[in-house]
Structure formats: C-alpha cells, structure tokens
Amino acid sequence: MKEKILDKLKEIEAQKGVKILYACESGSRAWGFGSPDSDYDIRFIYKHDLDYYLSLWEKPDVIEFMTDDDLDGSGWDLRKAVKLLAKSNAPLLEWLYSPVVYFQDEAFAKQMKDLATECFSPIASLHHYLGTTKNFMDACQAEEVKLKNYFYALRTALAGKWIIEKNSFPPVAFAELLPIALLHVQEKVLELMEIKSAQNEKYLHKREDLIVDFLLETVRFNEENAVGLKSGKKMGEELDGVFINWIK
Questions:
Q1: With 80 as the cut, is the pLDDT of residue 165 above it?
Q2: Would you give the DSSP letter of residue 152?
C-alpha cells in the first residue's frame, strides 16, 4: 500500500505543481486501532515555487483527494502549516509525530519537530483534546456504540491527561497513551481493540459502563486541571525565517 500511496503523492505533485516535504498517516491506522475497512488518512505538507507566494491575492492552501481504493488525502501549504505551528495546532503536531511516515525531507521534518517542541502550548492542546472528547460523549453513552467512538474518546481523553501529568505533547500511538489509564480499564480496552480489529466500521457494541465511567471521570479531571497550564512560546520571527528559507 505504501508504494500506491507514494505514487498518488507523485501524481499530486505533477498535477498541482508542488513539492511535498512531508507525508504521513493520520487517524485510526496511525493511532493503532484501525478496522479492516478503515480508510488510509494521508496527510502532507507541500510548497509551491516562490512566485506563488508573491501574489497580492489569497490562493488555495489545501489540497484534498479521495480515491476508489480508500486513500483519503489532505495536504496543507507550507505557509499554512507554519502559521498553525505557531499556534501549537494539535492536528499538525500529530502529523509531525505520526509513527507512520510515507515520505519526508529529513532536514525539514527535524526542523519542524524541533520548532513544535519549542512552540508547544499545553493549554491550547488540552482544550483541543478536551473538546474532541466531549464531542463523542453522547455517542459513547448510547446503548449500542460504534467502537471507533469509544477509541476516539479514549485517545483524546488520555491525551489531555498526559498533557496535565507530563507537560509534553502526547504520543500519537494509542498503545503509548494507554498505560496512564487504570489497569482494569487497560484490560477492557485491549479486549475491545481485539474485537475492533476483526470488525468493520459499522459494528455496534453493547454499552460498556466501565469505559463510560472512566471517560466521564477523565473529562472532569482534565477540566479541573486545565487552570494554570502554560501557553506556547511566541516565535513569530523564527518561524518567518523558516518559511522564507524553505520557499527559497
């Protein structure tokens, strides 16, 4: 599949006249709890030639594609990506720390990761994960639940807890987050992961009160401990320099 993904990215470069600097997997396959029929969520950062950035007018800064064989692609222009890095944008940081990388300019990837560490805003990241967890809570409390809803909520709830307890950006791989949950919760989650790995996305599972209670408790913990978290370092001048360097 990686070869097919790389071929598609080369096709995008030719069609759009861009250079891809970094491409990775995002979503359930990167997190480690994909289903057999999960899409491949390909995310990438690209740049145009210098002239593109000299226009007075706003231009598209996103490239998207969807193929018949479940390749779901979305890329951000370099200028957009660097601006989001300044805000410690959690989805962008997840791209940079993805355990599944399809392609990277190694110097670019290292520089972006180094800057992500310096720009990291615990408060901004926590609010992102807390909001995402809450979005899944109604679905998680239904009598029958799509397992993906449990895992999306668990991942973001644990990510928020990680930020509070460790003051760093959380791992993208769910297996690295799970150990901060209570042992009996970990055991139940591993049981559900085994089921999810063999079921399609439409599978409905009976409500698991243990999971729901843990989610509610973790949401409360994250809300109560958000006060006092720091913002990210302001690095406008440095990021401007990085952007100019890469478009040159």
A1: yes
A2: H
Instruction: Give strand pairing partners of 45.
Output: 22, 76
Residues in CB range of 224: below 8 A, 6 or more apart:
none
Q: Is the pLDDT of residue 36 over 80?
A: no
Please tell me the predicted confidence (pLDDT) of residue 201. Answer: 78
End-to-end CA distance of the chain: 33
User: Which three-class secondary structure state does DSSP give residue 168?
Assistant: coil
Closest residue by Cα to residue 146 from 26, 25, 37: 37
Task: State how far the Cα of 93 lies from the Cα of 96, in Å rounded to an integer.
Answer: 5
pTM to 2 decimal places: 0.91
The vertex-34 CA angle with 113 and 23, nearest 5°, equals 30
Does residue 200 have a pLDDT over 90?
no
